[in-house]
Amino acid sequence: MTTLAFAPFQFWPMAIISPTLLLLLIHNKSAKQSMAIGYAWGLGQFITGISWVQVSIDNFGGMPKLASLTLMALLIGYLALYSGLFAWLLNKLVPQNNRYRYILAAPALWLICDWLRGYIMTGFPWLLLGYSQIDSPLGNFAPIGGVDLVTLSVMTIAGTTSHTLINREWRLLIIPGVIFMTGFGLNAAHWVKPDFSNTTKIALVQGNIPQALKWLPKQRWPTIIKYMDLTRENWDADIIVWPEAAIPAFEYELPSFLQNLDSAARLNNSTVITGIVNRDKNKVFYNSILTLGVTANGPYKYDMDLRYHKHHLLPFGEFVPFEDLLRPLAPLFNLPMSSFTAGSLVQNNLDANGHQLAPALCYEIIFNEQVRKNITDNTDFILTLSNDAWFGHSIGPLQHMEIARMRALELGKPVIRATNNGITAVTDYRGKVIKKLPQFETGVLRAEIQPSLGHTPFFFVGTWPLYIWVLICFGFIIKWHYTSKRQRA
């Protein structure tokens, strides 16, 4: 049921209903029984919610069907551990049927488990409940405390509702009412404002290159020519953006082409931004972003220090954990481009025709603290390049776009999102989609956007107030646990 709350279904009340039912199911159960129920809830969420991962494993993993299904089952089984851990902790530490259990302990423990899932083994903070609320009144909490504050609001409502249904304390429903009314009220809060005196014309090129053909040597120049033809028609744009790894070659292999593209962009007073793969003199590989044309870096030169290098790499897709052990086991672990090195967490904004863009490559857009740390006082836009062709006609790219919208709302910056085959789109500073291209079509998205002036509270404080709040709650949880043990003794 939980998956229905997220894109493309976007029935956001389900993100409240589903954890409410989970809390009802584990009422009066032992910690071990609760863990089993919570684990089953997680299996349901991730079997349906990340089914798109199987598309990439099937199409590009090079593994027998049974092996790919086994690998998918292991991933889902791992992710479900966190909802099982939540249920176990709640019934182990706060088994009492009281308000503290549902209104304070349950939301705090839920956030702890979310944070663990977003950190362990590089993290996979996908399908956080807060993302489903991007179009609900609760989404208005995001500029204050990010997606985690939205999740906290969801779980506080779910916890209060569960307690009310179990104990018939109907007056407590005032808590969800206050939370929703506060969310409605925050809609009128404009933490930042658009700078209408500084309009930028952008063109986002969606090449729609089939993933199975993208890296074939004979397709290199047809792909490059396709992007050039689409770009040539849009030289009047201030910024032209190609998607992640749009150029199917290492940068050092194409010096003449890149110099000519740089010269053409300068001649037309434009900037071209593209994803490209890189290898330095030490044979270290990077997934990078390159700017050409009118930039602060001057004419094109091959210099790794002037590139943005992706920091948060996708496990198995871009690097292989325990590489020496796993690579010999299966073709999956030898996927193309699975030997990248991570760039720094904080890197310089991209300079494009006088504008500053905070970059996030593909998977990185799901890490809100990383994006926040790369926003400066001079940042105009958030830029994310992606290639979701790995996931075909699944729900994965739609969920990815939903996450990108949340970054805009949290930080009050328009998001520019260029992809190979969709969803290519532009949002305003509140996460509302201004324009987008249809998926699986070749095209160019033209838009005029304005940077925003000022910063949201989340930009200044990040998730730290929530960390402190959860730490305080956890302290009380431990105190209640040991107090009740002494009383029982």
TrEMBL record:
Cellular-component GO terms for this entry: plasma membrane
Transmembrane segments: 6-26, 38-57, 69-90, 102-120, 140-160, 172-192, 458-478
GO biological process, one term: lipoprotein biosynthetic process
Bilayer topology annotation: Multi-pass membrane protein
Limits of the CN hydrolase domain: 205-451
Pfam families: CN_hydrolase, LNT_N
GO molecular function ontology, one term from the record: N-acyltransferase activity
CDD domains, per the entry: ALP_N-acyl_transferase
Broad class of the protein's primary localization: membrane
Pathway(s) per entry: Protein modification; lipoprotein biosynthesis (N-acyl transfer)
Keywords, in A-Z order: Acyltransferase, Cell membrane, Lipoprotein, Membrane, Transferase, Transmembrane, Transmembrane helix
E.C. no: 2.3.1.269
Entry-linked NCBIfam families: lnt
Known role: Catalyzes the phospholipid dependent N-acylation of the N-terminal cysteine of apolipoprotein, the last step in lipoprotein maturation.
Recorded family membership: Belongs to the CN hydrolase family. Apolipoprotein N-acyltransferase subfamily.
Protein name per UniProt: Apolipoprotein N-acyltransferase
Organism: Vibrio caribbeanicus ATCC BAA-2122
